[in-house]
Amino acid sequence: MTGDDHRSESDESPDGSGDPPAVRIRGIYTTALTRSLLDAGQTVVQASAPIRERFDADFGDETHDVTVATTEDRQGVGVHGDPDAVDRVADELREVGRDTFAWVDPTPPGAVFEAEVTETLGSGAVCALGDAEGFLPYAESDDYLDAGDRVRVQVRESAPPWADHRAELGTDIRADAGLATLVRGGSGVTVDTRDDAAGRELAGMTEFLSTTVPDGWGLEWSHAATRADMDALDAALARAVARAESLSDALGDAGDGDTPPADAAPTGALAAPTSGQWCWFGRESRFALDDARRAVTATMPGHHRTKAGSEAASAGVDLAEALCGDGLGGPSGDTGDADSTNDGDGDADSTDDGNDTANADETFPFAVVTRQFGPVEGDTVAITHGKPDGRAFSLGRGTVTEWDSDGTVAVERTLSGGGTYDALGTSRERGDTALTKFREGRWWYPTIYRGEDGDLKGTYVNVCTPVECFPAEIRYVDLHVDVIKHPDGTVERVDDDELDAAVAAGTVPDPVAEKARAVAASLERALSE
User: Fold this and answer.
1) Half-sphere exposure of residue 42, counting CA atoms within 13 Å on the CB side?
2) Which position among 132, 144, 342, 380 has the lowest Cβ density within 10 Å, counted as fewest Cβ atoms?
3) Closest Cα partner for 90 from 273, 280, 307, 269?
4) What span, in angstroms and rounded, lies between the C-alpha atoms of 351 and 130?
5) pTM to 2 decimals?
6) How far apart are CA 384 and CA 226, in angstroms?
């Protein structure tokens, strides 16, 4: 496999040169996504040493058009960079599996906002950015901040929509172009590297580039720039200069971090030199990524599913694969029939009850993984309820009361009082219990509600993307349509209209919606019998 083998005449870089966009990939999905993007005709640059060893491809050290980086919680990736490049790469990632979801990032790194402080906390201020929020550490501002203050901020680091934290902000204006970053109000040349000799050499070479640093800006080179040639350095600096000029035009003559006047424009974006999208990978998608990785190197069944669970589990996968090598299955190993396909459709799909047993699942060591890392009986886990629009929230924490090697994890919660249970209409009272029985890989799960005296208050069956039982939480994306069984035995299917609206809004892909409706229909029949 070579980099040139994957280019097509239709591929164009963001600058219209005819070359495909250059992609920098980092995190636990790197090998699989490198394989997928190379196959799709993209160019991968600044590859790590393991990636260079695994691929027979020409990985350059030039600046990148887009970065694909695993999120902190390992649930997916952020795609950020030049708008055209981001769109093209995100389109490819959406095809990983039918339970891959993608959302536009409203706060891409580098975007500048007119913000209003809405709340002050111990270490910084919460800022309204129009339709989004960000967090500005006090150390990033020279001014005292209080609720109601207006401040101009730039996004330093964004956050996926399902995360429980906000985008991080700063007040200095920076024009980031990968290898090169220009800092408004700065001066001189610095290099972010621990190799002092290479840093001094790069700083000295800067004056020989054909592109010059504009007045009023300082230049920061990344560590990767120490390996780049002169052409790549000049191209990176030229891109940074173009972004700096664009920012200057958009922001006018206002100084960095200046407090806008009282009659300033409403809160919102003033400039966005880059764009971004967030991709969340569901369970089927993780197994599809396993297949892509297995075509390159030894990969255990459930590689990405296990790694996504925790740092400890991720390290355990690395150890297992290092010790067992090709015995796990790889480009020259025997993957066996169990890993030959990964479309998520087993024989159980003939009834569409959501009990899919993907071929790859037959060898996923659920019992081994959960015994080692959790969850098992007696553990406490959160139920993380994802929404098709990207948000996620906890339904609460409960105790695992049942565990089985077939993938079953039952979680019991004691509830507070107040209100009624959605759709069931029965009252929610203090001391009620909710027993939720999950099964790894299933497209649905039931919750049985009972009063403190044990009386049944109803059963609620959520239809969702395939369930994943991670060590500290159970995760999935809710697909709106649900089936309920009232205490008197009446069965009702609800919220089809919400699913239809999500499909129309583009937040639920058609194949996923079709699966959800089929599962709901099967559950309705089964509960009515």
Assistant:
1) 30
2) 144
3) 280
4) 46
5) 0.89
6) 43
